[in-house]
């Protein structure tokens, strides 16, 4: 497949996944896998929609619902790997998961890295 160059304003045509630069530059995050960092970026992207949809809890904290099957599909990984990436983010304090019960996806809170 041959690709063409970008011309003029075409450089602005894509949506992007935001990945906080600190995840790449701060010492405390250097041992987090790239896949987990990418997942954090995907969760951040989802969170912007959550805010617009007023997905907030009783304490006004914005949360994300991102089913494991969707994480697997978006990242092209197995269920085991998706679960490991979520666990890695949780172990580093970057997310908090709230289990909702049988067959319901977890509620995921992203922690603000600059607060």
From TrEMBL:
<dbReference type="Pfam" id="PF06970">
    <property type="entry name" value="RepA_N"/>
</dbReference>
<feature type="domain" description="Replication initiator A N-terminal">
    <location>
        <begin position="15"/>
        <end position="89"/>
    </location>
</feature>
<protein>
    <recommendedName>
        <fullName>Replication initiator A N-terminal domain-containing protein</fullName>
    </recommendedName>
</protein>
<dbReference type="InterPro" id="IPR010724">
    <property type="entry name" value="RepA_N"/>
</dbReference>
<dbReference type="InterPro" id="IPR036390">
    <property type="entry name" value="WH_DNA-bd_sf"/>
</dbReference>
<dbReference type="InterPro" id="IPR036388">
    <property type="entry name" value="WH-like_DNA-bd_sf"/>
</dbReference>
């Amino acid at each position: 497949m041959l690709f063409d160059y970008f011309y003029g304003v075409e450089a602005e045509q894509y949506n992007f996944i935001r990945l906080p630069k600190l995840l790449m530059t701060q010492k405390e995050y250097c041992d987090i896998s790239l896949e987990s960092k990418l997942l954090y970026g995907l969760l951040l992207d989802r969170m912007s929609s959550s805010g617009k949809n007023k997905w907030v809890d009783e304490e006004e904290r914005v949360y994300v619902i991102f089913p494991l099957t969707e994480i697997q599909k978006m990242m092209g990984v197995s269920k085991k790997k998706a679960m490991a990436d979520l666990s890695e983010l949780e172990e580093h304090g970057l997310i908090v998961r709230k289990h909702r019960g049988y067959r319901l996806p977890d509620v995921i809170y992203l922690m603000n890295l600059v607060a």
